[in-house]
Write a structure and sequence with these properties.
Radius of gyration: 21 Å
CATH superfamily of one domain: 2-enoyl-CoA Hydratase, Chain A, domain 1
Strand order of the largest sheet: 2-3-4-7-8-12
Number of strands: 12
Order of helices and strands: HHHHEHEEHEHEEEHEEEEEH
């Protein structure tokens, strides 16, 4: 997918999780049509067999999927997605496997296209990026010279890198930093994760993660080059706040900083979505996000799929910031 195409998909995902924007399909007539028995299950299985990163796992659960399809074949599409989605995810133990309903009819093609969006669509995406401050929801210095950075989404570096640089410059001289990922439900670009890691791990070229794709090729994520004058002080503590809503790219950042011993995590275990992929059309009103690759961390040889990232200190997320500030106050 091109950078512009990726930006568009990510911004649509961010908008759908934001409290302020209204989903584009909200005003469309609700579909109550029920697909012929087994049609949806057949379509789901066909897509999984052709695209899921671990095809052998699909074969193992094919019978169970067919049983579930027959059991729930009388449900309308909206109810079907709500019931079947979590069951499919559980069968394959993959939280990035997402079955979703859309009131607006879905086009007859793969949703996440490799083609460039048109100028009007790109303009809307760029306007939305500015409106959400490029995913950097809050940047401020708290009492006691403690930096606070809330990140709700990770846009590509060519879009959000300048905003991140400005944010980190304003926080560079703080005596401690809190990175708040408790509302980072939107995922995003692993290159932005790597760029943020560069501010804390000044080891240019260090391998962070390798993604092994179903199509038999690999993609590496490494620490990019960064002016050492911009690196956050290695002597200043960094804390990352997590919750069960922390997902995908937010989890990757938390995982990287944890396993490289650069940050302490406080909060809940994260959501457990590690494997990247694309969204596919199942039927007129159903889409399926299918993981097509497996992310492997270079330090651990594993990832956070299904289990999530475990914090150093488990605490109710609503109390995580207060607890972290208490820790920083006594340093």
């Amino acid at each position: 997918m091109t950078v512009s195409g990726l930006l568009l998909v990510m911004l649509i995902m961010m908008a759908s999780h934001s409290e302020a924007p209204v989903k584009a399909d909200q005003w469309a007539p609700k579909s109550t049509a029920v697909a012929p028995q087994t049609a949806r299950g057949d379509a789901i299985l066909q897509l999984l067999k052709a695209n899921y990163v671990h095809p052998a796992d699909v074969t193992k659960v094919e019978g169970a999927i067919r049983v579930l399809e027959e059991r729930h074949s009388g449900l309308d599409d909206e109810s079907y997605a709500r019931v079947m989605g979590p069951k499919l995810s559980e069968l394959l133990r993959d939280r990035h496997l997402l079955l979703e309903y859309s009131r607006r009819p879905i086009a007859e093609k793969k949703i996440a296209q490799s083609t460039e969006p048109d100028a009007a669509t790109k303009a809307k995406a760029e306007e939305f990026a500015r409106r959400v401050n490029y995913g950097l929801t809050e940047v401020k210095v708290l009492d006691g010279n403690i930096g606070y950075l809330r990140i709700d989404g990770f846009l590509p570096p060519n879009v959000a890198g300048e905003a991140l640089g400005s944010a980190m410059e304003s926080l560079r001289h703080t005596r401690g930093l809190v990175i708040d990922l408790r509302e980072s439900v939107n995922g995003g670009d692993p290159r932005m994760v790597a760029l943020l890691c560069a501010y804390f791990i000044p080891d240019t070229g260090k391998l962070l993660t390798t993604i092994s794709w179903r199509q038999k090729h690999e993609q590496e994520s490494r620490i990019p080059e960064l002016d050492r004058a911009k690196v956050y002080s290695p002597n200043a503590p960094v804390y990352v706040l997590t919750s069960r809503k922390t997902f995908s790219a937010g989890e990757e950042l938390a995982y990287n900083l944890k396993v490289l011993n650069r940050a302490k995590l406080i909060g809940e275990p994260t959501g457990g979505g590690a494997n990247p992929g694309s969204e596919f059309r199942v039927s007129d009103h159903l889409s399926l996000f299918i993981p097509e690759g497996q992310a492997i961390n270079a330090t651990t040889g594993s990832n956070w799929n299904w289990t999530g990232v475990t914090p150093h200190e488990r605490i109710n997320p609503s109390k995580a910031l207060e607890r972290t500030l208490q820790k920083l106050a006594v340093r």
